[in-house]
Amino acid sequence: MRETSSNTLNDLHRYDIALNSWTELTGTTGRSRHTAIWDESGDRMIVFGGLDSSSTRLGSLLIYDRATDAWSTPAATGPAAREGHVAVWDPSSPSARMCCGLSDTTTLGDLWSYDGAWTQLSPSGSITARRYASAVWDPAAQAMLGFGGRGSSLLDSLFLYSSTADSWSEYTVSGPGAQEQGAP
């Protein structure tokens, strides 16, 4: 599921390192600017949001089950349709954490959890609303750590959601310059 020029694709492929080969799997509806995270214990990929081929923002959730090579679309009331958000998998909860993004013309700074149902979280503290940031899960700190993105301008701050403290922190650091869609 990627976008090349004006084409939004709906393909899915698996790479086998030992065989150095690709296998095409069952695709789903095409989208771009979405998130896709892997739930190792559930052996599944969770996809949320993005844009469809007509650039309409999506609020749908798709789950790919590797064992059955099949997609499901859970009926779940949750976050507003968006693109350019970040998502990580917290294996200790186990749940997905998703924040930020662009919905209509609003840049978001909200935080959601998905464990079979969506829950909007209300942590203490706050971060600058942003879209097109990047984020990873730090299992030792039990935290989502993100960098950059775009608010009203490009951002060069680190943001951290601590699941143990249920709190946001934001840090201005020296180092990589302000950027969007980069790796932390």
What does it look like?
With 184 residues, this protein is mainly beta. The chain has no helices and 16 strands. The strands form five sheets. The protein has a four-stranded antiparallel beta sheet with strand order 5-6-7-8, with no helix packed on it. The protein has a four-stranded antiparallel beta sheet with strand order 9-10-11-12, with no helix packed on it.
Overall tally of domains: 1
Q: How many DSSP helices?
A: 0
CATH level-four homologous superfamily name: Kelch-type beta propeller
Mean residue pLDDT: 92
**DSSP strand (E) fraction?**
35-45%
Low-confidence parts = 1-5
CATH topology: Neuraminidase
Query: How far from one another are the termini?
Result: 23 Å
Characterize this entry briefly:
InterPro entries: Kelch-typ_b-propeller (IPR015915). The chain is mainly beta and 184 residues long.
Comma- or semicolon-separated keywords:
184 residues, mainly beta, Neuraminidase, 4-stranded antiparallel β-sheet, 0% helix, disordered N terminus, Kelch-typ_b-propeller, repeat, DRC7 protein, kelch repeat
Q: Which secondary structure elements does this structure contain, and how are they paired or packed?
A:
Blueprint: E1 3-4, E2 7-8, E3 12-16, E4 21-25, E5 35-39, E6 44-48, E7 61-65, E8 70-72, E9 86-90, E10 95-103, E11 106-114, E12 118-121, E13 134-138, E14 143-147, E15 157-162, E16 167-172
Antiparallel strand pairs: 1-2, 3-4, 5-6, 6-7, 7-8, 9-10, 10-11, 11-12, 13-14, 14-15, 15-16
Protein name: DRC7 protein
InterPro entries: Kelch-typ_b-propeller
Organism: Symbiodinium necroappetens
